[in-house]
């Protein structure tokens, strides 16, 4: 009797939570905290997924520098401090200080400083090497041996097939030994003097300068106020999004954000679209380029798949089969286009993208089940968040169609209202006693509810902007909305560091599980904005403060997920060893949360903007400047009493009540 063959184990991703990662897409540098690139693990300088340099070992006076500190200096660079005792001076004090600043673009500046009162002649050696492997091979342990080096004018070069790399040095080394991958200098350092060696690593021998990045479509907005952490978080979030920008290959003037590093330095339909949506207060350019790219991928022709935006499957935790990110992106497309119009999308770009949005709605209509819900995948479970995405797409899509003089707007509004009635009847699980019920995580294909409380329920509070500065109604009625707010703000879901992806008491809960317990900043941000808009300011403020405290703990660069261990006095959030950091949706979450405090509700086509700030002002007074509404700078101030005031706006905008 033949025994079943067990499924092949997926390769385990190497841990990256202790690495210092800097990115200027498509360039990437991954370093250990001591700064020496040893050639082991993921260490190296990469471009477009190719490792150009895996070893960069510095020795001074025949000694390894003693690492003192390694830290991020920004999204695209990292700094490493070390010291050296040459033995020329008695006592324990170091003679030479070493500062290394490594940029994602392949530039590294190594500065040596003489701390003593006497001159030093310092031998410096740098050993370089690379395997020219792609990141996937490195991550799975299949990188292969190092490639032999050759001398190149003022440095070394490597080539293997079509892959090649070159590292040049300034000043040129006194000696270069290709067989050992070794560059040598003899530096004369007067008392207190500093000397710098600059290394540049590129893909081609003719490359002399770092590769330039795409033009930035995001405004240089700021957040200032009583809590100084708000500005640090806002600025870091904006810089991380900037560092993840990649050029649209078919439209060089446009850009999208990669999902995250090191694992997903490319477009991910759902994540890239979510990030663009949450960054709309910084301008519509990112959303336009992302929508344009995804519109080109839409399935054409006729049939049930027409209009779908393809996307890979994504794990959904232990309770549900993987879901399709293409479904999420297809439903998000018309909603993001509609909201971008409210923020000031130019009419020409709207006309270009509107047909793709109509095709997305057509796909939704063609794929509804007999029960009126959307399965993901089909046949499969009817997920709670999928119905929320479909409802928002229908309402915002209907608003868009009506204002553009297209048909079917009323039909979509009627369908959304009917979906709400069906959802409340089928998805809501009534509770006994004080529990008050909860939404099911999903309906099985046979109609049975899956009674799990997950962060997916936060999407039931996520609405969207309609005309006149109004918010689209959600799937829940006021009573159920109040109950959901109570559930999201209670300890089983609120870890103290943000919203758990699954309540702590649910079967299968894992504080490190990316869909079964871990905090995912995007969901926390959606919950904060939704709770605030629905008037549940206490619950919104609790999640917001936890998320901000977590951001501070991570140096204001939130990873895409982190462990949801309950917060206790003196504790800190635990990093997930495989999480991308920076990640686009985690970075955009900071923008989304802080702008949600001001409750900015623009309607650029109507020439109005309304404010609905959070009344309890959880961070005290807050001023947001450098935002973009109707293509012009926009600034708003929220007082400690929760009163909002527009300080700068386009001349054509009027304040709506």
Give a written overview of the molecule.
This is Glycogen debranching protein. InterPro entries: 6-hairpin_glycosidase_sf (IPR008928), 6hp_glycosidase-like_sf (IPR012341), GDE_N_bis (IPR032856). It holds the Pfam family GDE_N_bis. This protein has 657 residues and is α+β, with helices and mostly antiparallel strands. Helices cover 26% and strands 25% of the residues. Helix 3 packs parallel to helix 12, helix 6 packs across helix 7 and helix 7 runs antiparallel to helix 8. The termini are far apart. The N terminus is likely disordered.
Write the layout of secondary structure elements.
Blueprint: E1 20-24, E2 27-31, E3 37-38, E4 44-47, E5 50-53, E6 55-60, E7 66-74, E8 77-84, E9 96-103, E10 107-114, E11 120-129, H1 135-139, E12 149-152, E13 155-160, E14 163-170, E15 175-177, E16 182-189, E17 194-202, E18 222-225, H2 229-243, E19 245-248, E20 251-257, H3 269-278, H4 285-297, E21 313-314, E22 323-324, H5 325-343, H6 347-366, E23 382-383, H7 384-403, H8 409-426, E24 428-429, E25 438-439, E26 442-443, E27 449-450, H9 478-488, H10 521-533, H11 537-553, H12 584-596, E28 600-603, E29 608-611, E30 622-629, E31 632-638, E32 644-648, E33 654-655
Parallel strand pairs: 29-33
Antiparallel strand pairs: 1-2, 2-4, 3-6, 4-5, 6-11, 7-8, 8-9, 9-10, 10-17, 11-16, 12-13, 13-14, 14-17, 15-16, 18-30, 19-20, 21-22, 23-26, 24-25, 26-27, 28-29, 30-31, 31-32
Helix pairs in contact: 2-12, 3-4, 3-5, 3-12, 4-6, 5-6, 5-7, 6-7, 7-8, 10-11, 10-12
